[in-house]
Fold each of these.
Amino acid sequence: MPNTPSTGATAATPSAGAAGKATSSPAAPAYGQTGKVSTPAKQGESFGDKVNAAKAAVLEKATAVKDAAAEKTRPTDTTEPVARPRGQVRKARLRLSRLDPWSVMKTAFLLSIAFGIVTWVAVFIVWSAIGAAGVFDNINNTVTEVLGTPAAEPFDIENYVNTGKVMGFTTLLACADVLIITALATLGSFLYNIAATLLGGLEVTLASED
């Protein structure tokens, strides 16, 4: 009777296929490791390329954050307009208690000179316009017809009133105005100071709106 192999020996010896499967399976990761297999670095990638990639990522993130903040702060159509506070009006009451006679005299003197010059120029322009319009010739003809003056001695109004006499009189009047206006202004300042001492002077209210 032939010898048959025992079942115990057969179970103890592993098969060749099982041994191959056992050797091909990867080893389990040790405790504390994530099990992620590290990939080798790309060939030809330098440190500068990594820095540029990091900068680009940071810029993209900053742009996204900025856009999100702009969307939050953008006013909506339903926002009611904010009422501006009304400006306050500040008032100040001032009192003109005294006038300096010297400053009043200087100011009045300059203003009176300007007034005299304006008067002289105005009279000259008006007199020249009257002469250019032929008013004097019409007056001469009218007087000659009314009085019947002989042709040998025609009437001429410019023998009595001419440009030189009119402008000379205007100059004297302007000089007199300078003296009179200056004196009256100075005297008025003295009188105002006396009245201000007794009554307190003029009060002026000034207002300023913020």
Amino acid sequence: PNTSLILQQELSSDVSSIPFTELKQQLRNALVSDENKEENLLLQSIQQGGGILLENATPDDIGSTLHLRGATYIENVGILYSPALHFAQQQQPDNTKTTNTAASSSYQWYQTILSNTIQSTPILHCHGLHEWAMQYHPPNAPPPPSAKYQSHLPLRVSQTTINDLVERKGISCTHVDALRYFAPSAKPLNQYGGNLQRVDQVKLEQKGCVHATMDLFKISCRLQPFIDA
């Protein structure tokens, strides 16, 4: 990739500028004036989002206030956080540069997951029965994986009640990771398939799922600093 061209395109189109000196002073003032300083120490690590140019920020700011990953210093201009520029080339020990393919693939994967999820139709009739599917254990069937951890804990309802509910209602679970913990006998009862693969997450992830909401935290950590706080 032509790094200079990417940089030129970033600076001419989708970049928003923030006067970094003023921003840093505002944060310092907030830390000094706020009584609960410990909670506000998080403000010292700025996570401004992708496509942001921090005007007049310098390499001296990296590591103490600014996030190191993804930062591109532009002399006499500031520091730019650009996913396109960050993933375009990566410096190697022999001073050659290669495309950061693995990192960019991960970024694009999570971006696709989030885009598809926000456009999805929420499924509101699963009723959290994935938890019951994890305890499903009909006669002569192999025990659920959780049995080795929870065998000493009594169930709040009988095993018969759990089995009857799962069999009567069926399971409407779209979350790949939740399915991994299903009892083996419960997987065929899932409306969306009993052997979901990671690639199925792209088409099945939907915004009515509690597990998908929990995933947002994991994804936001992996995409920082290119998404804002």
Amino acid sequence: MAPSAVVTVLSIILFVSSPVIPIPASFAEGILVLSTTASPDGGSKVPLETNDMKLNLAVNQLAILHLLRKGASGNKCEGMTGMGRGDLEEVQRLREELASLLDTQCPLRDSVAEVRDHQEAVSHNQQKLENYVKDINASNNNLNGTLSQVRITVSEMSSNLLKIQEDIKRLQEQIAMKEQDTEKNNSTAQLHDDMGATNLWSPGRLFRHEGQEFYLNTDQKKTWKDAREWCQERGGDLAQPNGGWDLFRQQLLQLLPPAPPSGHQGVWLGASDTQQEGHWVWLSGTPIPHNFPWGRGQPDSNGRTSNCLEIVHEKDVRREYNDYMCSDPRYFVCQL
């Protein structure tokens, strides 16, 4: 703060806080002599020691206000031509206070400049931070795009992997079927070799079903009783498949010669109800289960005369399990 401003403020305070001050006629003289002051011992007046004209002016003005205030408060004024020791000390004190205020002005300006520098640095850092945030957002967008592409690639790879697994499973099934066919062919060939060596089952057709070996005789037709004896003479018996009866029937029908244009063609198997009407059992004594795949409306017994089990084969009509008269000649299947 400039000295004149300080003096102005102090002057206002002094005038406001003081009563109305009568201005003496010798006021002009007092202004002129304020540039000097009495010596401490009351001798001749000496100039105030200062090189700052503005500070001298401020001190002079404060001295005038001080003297006027004394006069207004009832103290005698010895004239405006000089100051006493107390006045000199008061002026000196005011001068020192003003000098102290002036001394603090430069550090204050420096502090203000430092604050401004800090504000500029903060603004610069804030701009850099905003740029960093923009860069981070851009990087996040790129990362999200890359992540989406990775997810799409993983999804495609998963789909391809499922297809590969399905292909492998299909190939394994094909290999298993080929192995079964190879094993079946080898077993059939071995069975043919064995039968050829003994010449017991030839001519005829051999096949396997669920681990059992069967021989289809299509060379001659026999009654159910004669067919069983023929099988027994060769160490077997009429066929008694353990299960999978639909598949057994399909295998057998593929081996049979074509059905005649008209008439009935069938193949004897090893089951009957000759011991008890309606109670069908295999030759081993095992009852035929209730879920056995009989043909529609079978067994019908046909007046208690149909007591033996056959697979009937009529051209484009019936290919099913049926009960028939045991005395009628049929092809037959032996179980080895």
